[in-house]
């Protein structure tokens, strides 16, 4: 029962950003630059999801709370939701590019665009191989492949840093917690004698 | 046919007398206020006031464009004493609410092009900067003007951001500052400038990217050296001293060929050299504007 509640909560958290985006459109609240706002909102949703995705397993170990453990086990649907928001983000970007198609080749290879695009390709590959069938087929390689999500983090950091009002420090907010958690628990699970070797 | 642009015609550079005349007309034709009458004489649609006042780059408040309005709510800037000093015969101070009575009100409808590739069309009120400079009588050595914005961490949270060298500072060459298009704006849409748009007065240089049009000015100093400017100091490879609107010279991170008018979804329009104010081109004769961007 508690488990079911945690799953309801997770599902709600995953659709909430989409509900918010839809309501902002419906209510005409997107403001002076609607496309930019949609890009921000979909990007923001994706950021929270990759943040959750990378922090959850370690948070679950750290706190050992049931709902965190349930959420951590449901990472597939978090990842697929992340892919959905990433597609929304990229789709809006492409729609916006239709009015200057002649500039698209040049715009696509700008580090700002490229960093986001490569992150999206990673999400695409992970989404395509997210089924139990793929997991079964790929065996050990599945784990290796899905570690690619960690490569998306620095790409997103670059992407955030290069946008108009980009700020490396603010962008780091999304990066530090998952990396610190990863490092902290990496050491935690090792015997004390091992650490010197890693350093 | 030559595109009809800019600003308003000479006739609509209203002084106070013609503004009153405009008001009279508006009364006879109730659906048109003086601002709309003004706009009828320009070839471009005004950006709605609600958008002009809710989408602002004002890093003293916040780095995004929605929050300055929220953070500026209940915060009033000015009136204060504007100081004009430096290489001038007659330095002076004037209260910002005495500017219009002293120098005379002008109405100008200008395109405003942000370096981030969005733009708007704004009916400003203010005084031509040239009138203040003439009052101060520049010395012959004076070649540039430095514009200093307010610094008050009590009023705006953005000053905590250590990445930038506060206060905001901008600069113009003396001939640019004296150009009749250059305006010190005290209002928009017939009302005093809202805080988020740079109350109580700001620079408006319509042929340059928006960041040159410094907000909430407290001081103008005439110098013989090119002044430091905040954005040039923060990212010299991206923001030059001149910052003339130029569709040929891309920002390192994005294209400057087109722009999006506030309020439109996907539509983009071509960006024009000097933002369409080609009458200023003579100021840059002989300069390579891809180098002096």
UniProtKB/TrEMBL annotation, chain A:
It comes from the Bacteria. The chain crosses the membrane at residues 46-65, 77-95, 115-133. Pfam families: Ferric_reduct (PF01794). Its main location: membrane. GO terms for molecular function: FMN binding; heme binding; oxidoreductase activity, acting on diphenols and related substances as donors. Keywords: Iron, Membrane, Transmembrane, Transmembrane helix, Transport. It is a multi-pass membrane protein. It is found in: Membrane. The keyword Transmembrane applies. Residues 58-154 form the Ferric oxidoreductase domain. GO terms for cellular component: plasma membrane. This is Ferric oxidoreductase domain-containing protein.
UniProtKB/TrEMBL annotation, chain B:
GO terms for biological process: protein repair. It holds the Pfam family Oxidored_molyb. The keyword Oxidoreductase applies. Residues 79-231 form the Oxidoreductase molybdopterin-binding domain. Keywords: Metal-binding, Molybdenum, Oxidoreductase, Signal. This is Protein-methionine-sulfoxide reductase catalytic subunit MsrP. The lineage of its organism: Bacteria, Pseudomonadati, Pseudomonadota, Candidatus Lambdaproteobacteria. SUPFAM superfamilies: Oxidoreductase molybdopterin-binding domain (SSF56524). Its EC number is 1.8.5.-. Its cofactor is Mo-molybdopterin. Part of the MsrPQ system that repairs oxidized periplasmic proteins containing methionine sulfoxide residues (Met-O), using respiratory chain electrons. Thus protects these proteins from oxidative-stress damage caused by reactive species of oxygen and chlorine generated by the host defense mechanisms. MsrPQ is essential for the maintenance of envelope integrity under bleach stress, rescuing a wide series of structurally unrelated periplasmic proteins from methionine oxidation.
